[in-house]
Amino acid sequence: MGRKVGLQTVELLTKPKLIATYTVVGPKEGEGPLKDNFDEILEDDLCGCKTFESAESKMQLHVVQEVLKKAHLKEQDISYVFAGDLINQLMPSCFMAREVDIPFLGLYGACSTFIEALSLASICLEADIGNHMMAVSSSHFSSSERQFRVPLEMGSQRAPSSQWTVTGAAAVVLAKKGNNVPRVTHITLGKVKDYGITDPNEMGAAMAPAAVDTIKQHFQDTGRKPSDYDIIVSGDLGSVGKQITTELLKEYGYNIGSNYIDCGDEIFDCKSQSTNCGGSGAGCSATVMSSMIYKGMIQKKYKKVLLIATGALLSTISNYQGETIPGIAHAIALEFGGE
Question: What global pTM score does this model have?
Answer without folding.
Answer: 0.95
